[in-house]
Amino acid sequence: MPRSTEIVGEKTNSTGLIIHRIIAYVVLVLLVVVSLFPFYLLIINATRGRSQAGIRWYPDHFLATNFKNLFSGSTAVAYGSVWRSLANSLFISACASLLSVYFSALTAYATHVYQFKLRKFADMFILIVMMVPTQASAIGFYQFMNKLGWTDTYIPLIIPAVAAPATYYFMKQYMASALPLEIVEAARIDGCGEFKTFNKIVTPILKPAFAVQIIFTFVTNWNNYFMPRLILTSKSKYTIPLVLNAMRYAGPQEKDVGMFSLYIVLAILPVVIVYLCLSKFIIRGVALGSVKG
Amino acid sequence: MKRKSISYAKWGYIFLIPFFVVYIIFSLYPLFQTFYYSFTDYVKDQGSIGGGWTRQAVEVTPTFCGFDNYSTIFTSGSDLLQSFWNTIIMWIVGFIPQIVISLILAVWFTDLRLKIKAQGFFKAVIYLPNVIMASAFAFLFYSLFSRGGAIYDLIKVPLLESVWGSRGVVGLINFILWYGNTTILLMAAIMGVDTSLYESAQIDGATSSQTFWKITIPLIKPIMSYVLVTSLIGGLQMYDVPALLTKDMGSPNGKLKTVVMIIQANKQGDIGKASALCVIIFIVSAIIGLALMFASADHDGKKKKKKRG
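^ Those are the sequences you sent over. The predicted structure of the assembly is below.
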């Protein structure tokens, strides 16, 4: 085990340092391999046929066949339509992330700008409920949605995004550093209404925070399995993870590993592309989010 | 002027309405309902176990049964109790390598003498799995580790057929998903440490391991406990990976069945007991969450006292 402990101290021992550096790079490269190897195999498998015995290191020629099978009618009947699942996931994630950033910003604006009696209380309340896991209310949630006739609809998957405590806190922190109250005052003097001030003057200032949080909320919803599984039952409404689950249940006869792998590739591709373009900002966002910890 | 500020206060309340209305309908009321159900013997019979063949649910009106659900859960040898152990064990299997590797990486990345090149690339790669669908990972790892899969072909051991093998695979997936995130959090913490501390340690002739254990670790303790607590609360909710990996069965022998898998399976079944499980998740999360809050408040308090002194 290498000593991970050379920080800044200690007189420079150049051979020791070089050895240390070599060990660090070896471990890092190893971790890169561990992280990327599954994706590599996935892509290779997506070009292979139905049943795949053993490992294969380079692509096969079944990609076109897999594509055809994946978008065929029988696949849609068995597991839920692939097109629809992509569209459904896109719709839910897009709506949820937009609602989440807008209303979180509005809520944060309320406790940031206005002085009112329950201000501290509201702020504390949201901080505390941030720690309540969604699973803790799952049964009551399901039963209540059932009673309202909202199971197997997208309402319980989209509307709760309006109340997102973590996004609220991010917005609040951002406002503390980037939204001087003088701007709001100036807008008031110019006769701008409160709601209009928020929409026309404040939201443009918050754009960077919106971008970060839209990405995070979108990805969370895109990847979410628990909630859609709890709420949705009809195949036409399935999101991507539900179709994946249906595929996991395929019997040995129907199993088409090549096609399934291709579906996983399509399922993660949008997120991977966005991530590759914006990884710098995303990673910075993660580090920023930890400041409150 | 005074009157004006009063009229502005009204807008504070108005802007809070959407959040609180939605929160009450979709979270708070369901939470109270869950607490209520956990004290009743509310069971919906879906006709047959595992299939839900009939859409017609035979419904029993919930009657109060006190702490019966809880005492059933805490009977030794119950499946429900077992599910807690399963969840915790799988969390530990993933968490220990995660915290160790992340700590090592964070120290390396921030080491000024080591000067790791291409940090942006390494960070981007190790964080990548965190944005990927956990269920996709589970599906993929199933096809890699099951008989005939690529990894099975390399190691020739049917890992997914043994309890510890499959728990290990779940731990491995959780490790891959989360170590990048933890590394970045720990890095942010280490970079927040005042560099003059390291400089003076160097002047005083401290060895590198002394610097690590006596400066780095104590100063990043708050973030370490934050990582521990959020990971544990997240771990309690473990669902996607074992559910996809085992087709909701928690096989082998139900040793991979997590608490949330049971809750999900009983949303229309044994509602009373499932609710009790929800409540236990709530209570445990609340206790460790509050412990973290008090610990960090205590920490801040000490800091302030020091400043005053």
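The longest helix of chain B spans residues 271-308. The two ends of chain B are 42 Å apart (CA to CA).

Shout if you want it in another format.
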